[in-house]
Each structure stands twice: as structure tokens, then as C-alpha cells.
Amino acid sequence: MAHSGHTHGGAPQQGPQPQPIKGVANVIAIGSGKGGVGKTTLSVNLAIALAQLGHRVGLIDADIYGPNVPMMMGQTRQPNVAPDNRIQPLESFGVKFISVGLISPGDKPLMMRGPMLHQIIRQFLQQVEWGELDFLVIDLPPGTGDVVISLVQTVPLTGAVVVSTGSGVALQDARKALEMFHQVHVDVLGLVENMSQMTLPTGEVIDVFGAGGTERTAREYGLPFLGGIDLDPQIREGGDTGKPVTLAGPNSQRAKAYFAIAQKVADASKAIAAKQEDVFEIT
Ligand SMILES: Nc1ncnc2c1ncn2[C@@H]1O[C@H](COP(=O)(O)OP(=O)(O)OP(=O)(O)O)[C@@H](O)[C@H]1O
């Protein structure tokens, strides 16, 4: 494959180039167009599944509007900050994590303007003692906006995962998220459909939000469909009690779908890394 320059491709960038975080191999952003579709639930369960598959994993909660990662990871204490301003991430279930919710715990909203937000995103990436990580998963706020811009200006992303329900309105907003990642030259590793269908205690399966819509959208965009997650009260309970369902391991029926998605994300990241190595060898 011919390659003319020394960049990773994409449009020429202005200002400082994003710098990789030392020791961190892959940075994966989890986005959605619409709020409340299960982005945080996916981020947390994906991080735990990757850790259970033997990877070293970190998780950044950058959802400034609803920083729910600490509750779902079962720890809400403030992180320790060393005298040299390095921040110690919290750790649950083998996953290191940090959250905007830990800066302003409790019920107060975190109200921030662009520059402060940019500063926090940079701190979370560069000032936290992540150590060696195979994956750093980032739970984005819903929608399109400042956090993503700060992120792509600070570090090169391996790729993004977009989560949606199958409903028309959620998919309409998911398309905007896909367009946003395209504009900032972030590869979308694939789409996930959350709350696809529900199995009643009688065994009857009902379609709640229009199962199949996300897969059709993925096909429309020529992107991989990474899988669907059932609407399942135990998944909600796992989040609310700080015991996500993936803790039950890859053989658990209700965690299976998360593990399959984690494996696909790991495989896609590996393929991207191999492609980049090729480029470096040629240039
Ligand atoms: N598959 C599922 N089955 C049952 N409940 C779910 C499922 N996925 C998410 N939920 C629940 O739906 C609610 C919203 O999920 P979550 O907080 O993950 O959404 P979100 O997209 O991150 O929201 P936002 O970004 O707007 O804060 C939570 O109570 C969560 O426990």
C-alpha cells in the first residue's frame, strides 16, 4: 500500500498534534446520539469484559451531564492526588477508572464552559496514573460536542463504538454521532443495539424499541454491527447496585452478549494496530 506522508492519514491538523499516552495501547470512545440509551452501561460492562478476557483496562467517565460510572463501579470516593499532581485512579473489578462525577460528587450539577472542560479531559488522559493499559475506554456524554473535540485534540483514538436502541428517534441521533466521528477522522469500530428485545418470564420474546434498526443502520453506513443487548431488569439492577452483570463471567447467559462485543472490539483494535504498523514500515 502506497503512503505518501508521515501522518496517520485524514485531513491536515492545525495546532499541536494529539500525542499517544505513554503505556496506553488503545483508546476507545463510546458514544451515542441520544441520552439514556445505555452508553454508560455498555462502557462499564465492556471494560469489565475486556478485563476478564485478560486485558489491562482503564475507563474514563467523561459524561459531564450524567457521570454514572462511579455508581455502576460501586465506588464514589474521591481519588488521591500525589504532591506532583498525578491522580491515582480508583479500581474496581480489575478496571482502573476516573470520573467527572468524582470531582463534584453528590447531586450538584457540574457546570463547565469549554476551556475548563478541555482542561479536565486533558488531565484525565495525561495526569492520571494509568500505568500500562491495553484499552482505555471513554464514556462520552450523549450527543455531539466539546468533549469529543477535546478528546481528539489530545490523544489519537483507536476508534469509537456507537450505541443506540432500534427506535427511529434514537437512530436519527445515532446518525449524527456517526457523522461527528467521521468529521473528526475517528474510525467507528461498529454499532451496538441496546435494549433490543425482552424475554418475559413466560418465555415470550417482545420487541420493545424496534429490534434490528441498529443493524440496518450499520449496514447502511457500511459499518460492522457488534451485537445486540437484551432489555433485562438484571442489567439495570447490576448498574444501580454497583455489580455489573459481566462480573458473572463469559459463560453467564446475560453477560454473553457483552463478552462477544468485547472480543470484537479487541479484534478490531488489533487489526487497526497491525494496519498502522504496516504504514510505519513503508514510510
Ligand atoms: N440492556 C438494558 N436492560 C435494562 N436496563 C438497561 C439496559 N441498558 C441500560 N439500562 C438502564 O437504563 C438506564 C440508562 O442507561 P445508561 O445510564 O447506561 O444510559 P446512557 O446512555 O449512558 O445515559 P446518559 O448518557 O444519557 O447518561 C439505566 O438505569 C440503566 O441501568
Automatic annotation (TrEMBL):
Keywords per UniProt: ATP-binding, Hydrolase, Iron, Iron-sulfur, Metal-binding, Nucleotide-binding
Entry function: Binds and transfers iron-sulfur (Fe-S) clusters to target apoproteins. Can hydrolyze ATP.
Protein name in UniProt: Iron-sulfur cluster carrier protein
Assembly and binders: Homodimer.
Region spans: Disordered: 1-21
Alphabetized GO MF terms: 4 iron, 4 sulfur cluster binding; ATP binding; ATP hydrolysis activity; ATP-dependent FeS chaperone activity; metal ion binding
Family that this chain belongs to: Belongs to the Mrp/NBP35 ATP-binding proteins family.
Taxonomic source organism: Terriglobus saanensis (strain ATCC BAA-1853 / DSM 23119 / SP1PR4)
Residues at which ATP binds: 33-40
Highest taxon of the lineage: Bacteria
Gene Ontology biological-process entries: iron-sulfur cluster assembly
HAMAP family xref list: Mrp_NBP35
Alphabetized InterPro entries for the sequence: Mrp-like_CS (IPR000808), Mrp/NBP35_ATP-bd (IPR019591), NUBPL-like (IPR044304), P-loop_NTPase (IPR027417), YlxH/NBP35 (IPR033756)
